[in-house]
Specification:
Chain B: Residues 1-19 form the signal peptide. The complex is a heterodimer. Chain A has one helix spanning 2-19, and strands spanning 22-24, 33-35, 39-41, 45-47, 62-64, 70-72, 83-93, 98-106, 110-121, 130-133, 139-140, 143-149, 153-160, 163-166, 175-185, 190-192, 196-199, 205-207. By secondary structure, chain A is mainly β. In chain B, 7% of the residues lie in helices and 38% in strands.
Chain lengths: 214, 206
Amino acid sequence: MHYKIYILVTCMCAALTVSAQVGVNTTNPNTDLDVNGFTIIEKKLYLEDPGESTQIRGSQLLIQRTDNSIVQYNLDVSKYGPINYAELVLKATNKSGVEDFDTKIPIDPYNVTLQGYYFLDNNNNGTSVITQSTNGDDKIEGFQAYAYKGSTTWHIKVFVNNSIFRVAGNDDIKVDIYINLIIFRKGLLAKEMNAIEVDLDEEVKGTAALPAGF
Amino acid sequence: MPKLLLYITLCLCSFVTYSQVGIGMTNPEADLHINGDMLIQKELIRSQIDEVTATDEEFKLLTRLTNSTPIGEVTYLDPDDLTVAPINIVNYRFFNINSDNLENVDLQYDTGKYVIAISNFQYIGDGIDKGPSNSIGAFVTRVFQENNTWHLEIRNRFLDLAATKSVEYRLTLIVYDKSYYKELPTIRVDLEGNNTGSTSAPENLN
């Protein structure tokens, strides 16, 4: 008789494990499986129907660290984001602009891009700075504002070809250049592709090759 | 009978509150240790999740695959292994240009899949002579959509280089994949001749 009861109890308890809520290190599981502690999954994790996030606020990305732990990507704490923005303000630059500025941002882990700039008179923050060609007042010169790779770090150039920055009545001024840098961390979202050369063959229309894979 | 009660209690304790549990293994190294795959059919909630630290590097973003079998495999994103990354950075050089007129180059990126941004622009070469009344013309640098691909225009629309002069253009295109980058509807505002204005923020961004 006792023997039968023992079997019955065992079966009931066994049934509990497949049908009811299960807790590990907790007597009050709040979900179907509630693990109060660490979980290690040796192989794959599938989330069949995790639900969707419908807002850009109130959520953070998840990352896998080099020790394989999965943690929350708090950008306020992390050294870097996938995409980083910095304003670079170069004060009192030469009237010829910036020939070579070393940002000291290393080449290997980052891609630095210059996505915009403007300039002010260093003397009074005035906006009346113009550029003047040294090849004559009848010339409209092109500008170059870009980030490029030095030996190990990203450098910046900002200048107008064959020109100086000046204001009316004074061709010997210093300027403050305000630069928008967007800095991508490689390996998270961004990837640098091979450069593409486009020979227009003296035509005004043409077609550029796509990078491999597109 | 006390023996039976004790047994029931033990059974319940051992089934409802485990200490360390191993699945597919006898020596679990965590509270729950699964020596194999884990499938969660509904939500995964991590109530006390750790955060990245200030010294962490070389971590990877996680993504959930919608085309795995079973669906929903959690993997990490490695742009170096992808032919097309969420953000692709491509340097371009345009040469043998007709005067200064790069009027329309088909970059061939599908407008349904990508959004393009220009950065690092370089105008390398001779200046353009001013036009009548000292006009400086209008120098344009832009990408635009045409026939479902992205195109590029860089030129002074009204003035040209002198016959013997030449220029080449260099720039960096940032090619964003739309699965990670949302293209919002055009924001179009009539300023009616004023030099200030405002508009409501795009839906969801306010």
